[in-house]
Amino acid sequence: MDAEQAAKTKLKEIGMRITPQRVLILKNIIAMNGHLTAEEIHRELPSFITLATVYNNLKYFAELNLINELSFGSSCSKYELADTSHYHVICESCQQIADFNYPLLNEVEYAAAQVAHFKVHRHTLEFYGLCQECKKKK
Amino acid sequence: MDAEQAAKTKLKEIGMRITPQRVLILKNIIAMNGHLTAEEIHRELPSFITLATVYNNLKYFAELNLINELSFGSSCSKYELADTSHYHVICESCQQIADFNYPLLNEVEYAAAQVAHFKVHRHTLEFYGLCQECKKKK
DNA sequence: TTTGCTGCAAAAGTTTTGCAAACTT
DNA sequence: AAGTTTGCAAAACTTTTGCAGCAAA
To answer: In CATH, what number does B87-137 get?
Structure first.
C-alpha cells in the first residue's frame, strides 16, 4: 500500500473526514518517516495548504493517537507516526533525534499506574546526551 | 538548612553570582517543591523581579543542571529541582504531574548509548494517562 | 573596577482562533 | 442539506533579546 492509500485508510479508521489537506499532511508524515516540525511538513506541501491547517490537523491527529507530538528539546514540537514503538535518544547540542528500539517497559508502566493511581495508556522514554559528531567537536 | 540558605549554597557551588533575584527564584523552587511554570514562579516573587529575569535565570539554572526543564504536555515548560531522581506520570486531561520513584534504568541507558552511538548523561521516563479524578469524570 | 545581571520594552517564534466560504458526507 | 473544514488574517502566548544603568565580586 502506498503512503496516500495508507493515509486515507487511517483517516477512515478513526472516523475523520477525508479532505485533500488531511490526506496530504498524513501522507507526508508517513512518507518522510521521521520527526518533523509543523513547519517542515508545511514546506513539503502544495502552497494552498496553510500552516494553520497543518497545525490544526496535527493537533487532531495527535488527539486521536494517530501521531505523537514530541515536545522535548527545541522550541517547537515534532511529530511522528504513532504506529511504531520505540524510544528516543536526543542530542542536546544539535537537537537531532534518533530512534531506539527496545522492548517496552510494561512492568514499569504497570508499577507507575499502581503507585500513582492513574490509568496509564502509554509511556515515553528519552535519553539525552551528545551524538557522535557533537561528541567529537567538544 | 532553610530554603534561602540552600539556594545561596547552590548558587555558590555552581559559581553563579548571587543576586537577590536568583536567591528568591531558587528559594521558591526549593520551597514549593513541585513542577512550576515560569509564570507561577514569577507570581510568587516580589514585583520588582520581571518575568524576563525569571526566564533568563531558569535557563541558566537548567543549563547548569540545577533544575530540570519539563517540556511535555502543556504549552509552557515546567521546572523542578534536579536533585531528586524520579519519573513522571502525567494526566492528559488536567495536566497534573505526579512523581514516580523507581530504580533508575541504567542498563537501558547503557544500551541506548551503545546502539545510538551517543554519550548519554541522563534520561527521562514519562507515563501518560488519566488521574483518579479525571478517570471518574469519564 | 570589572564583569555580569536586571529591568524595560520590544521582538521573535510558535500555535490558536474567528469567521465566511467551500467542501465532505 | 447538514455539518465540518479550510484559508486568511489576526491574536494569543511563551520565550528571547538589546541596551542602558546597576550591582556583585
So the answer is: 3.30.1490.190
